[in-house]
Model the fold of this input.
Amino acid sequence: LDRSATTEAADMGFFRPRRGTAAGPGGSEPGDPELIRRMRLADESALEALYARYGGLVYTLALRIVGDPELAREVLQDTFLSSWEGRETYDSARGRVPWWLMGIARNRAIDLLRSRPHQARLREQEHRAREAAALPPPNTEEAPLVRRAIIDALGGLSTLQREVIELAYYTGLTQAEIARELGQPLGTVKSRTREAMDRLRQALRPLMGPTAEAGQHRD
Amino acid sequence: VTEAHERIVEDLAAYVLGSLETEEHLRVEAHVATCPTCAGLVAEYRGVVGIMPVGLEPVASPESAWKVIRAAVRKRRPGRSGYAVLPKWLRIARWPAVAALVAFLAVWNVTLQHELTRRAPGPAPGPEVEALSRRPGRIVILQGTGKPGASARIFVAVDGGGHLAVSGLDSLPRGRTYQLWFARSQPPPVAAAAFAVDVSGRAWAKVSVPGSLDDVRAIFVTDEPSGSAAPSGRPLLEAQSWR
Done:
């Protein structure tokens, strides 16, 4: 991870939070905390800015989980509506704004996936996740630096580590369900999950800095 | 580090991924709330989980999605007041407007009160009462013990003269009058003033104070037949204390 990746990550607000009350790192765009502050004042333009910044990523995640463009669009809309209605509940001590958004999107997508009409899709997703884990690493030559860093970190995991992480994250399966799905002992699944998360944590730590935005915009 | 703590640490990653059964999730959550070490690790895991989507192949979001979100936000805003839809210049001007309105209401209220006082029928304190009130003396407050809402104030000058101001009493029929009594340690009570009230229930009257207030045990007002020499009705107003 080089300095360019670090700078790019900071610009995205994922690793180091967007700072400042009026402008972001570039000096022209408001930081995420500022957008949340304005949303709390019922400023719709702040929500629009947040959507412009993270809408694509939320949709990408939703599509990865539900596997259907219409359902993914529903998740995208629900996520930003929830962030608007729950803007008072965002707690910077629990993580950065994009993490919060991704959490909302993931929970909504998995809820949708687990609802009765989508049970068949869930099974399809489990199958797809296993296939994805078995695929060769994606070509990252054209990818932005931050994405490349994450792909490299995921690529550094063993097949089983990557499988358990993806099944947990993208399909919402519990550790016991993953154990059944993979035919592995529960203890092994738990150990691989922890090992995978520790390796990712260590690989991405140089970019992350303080893990919370505490003290920056507790208003 | 206990064995129980180690078991929790083993589950922290799955906890952050939302991959624990409900019972396990609650157990870990309770532990994290009291363990700074585990809370720190959870924060780092949350960072990992939060950025994982960045590793996905980006897909452009549907163009119309924002319009749907915006429309829903506007529709779901029950707290959206008329103020929120005002033009910006009106929002800026709201405080001067409120201040002007308050000032206008204050002036209007004072003017109205003055006019009501000026037009009020019934007796008004004469010049001798006003002169009396400027002399040194004591004030006795009477409360409407027999007539809730009524009250009176007696000003007693040091030389024995005094005047009474009453409010809240009903107008009396012909042949009846209100009387102010001073009951001393030696009976009978002394009538100190007789008065009628105006349509507003108010009255001003001169009071003949019998000697020193230090010798007075009770001060009260009753409704009496005109010219009554002794109190016969129940007290409508009574002084609570004047020492």
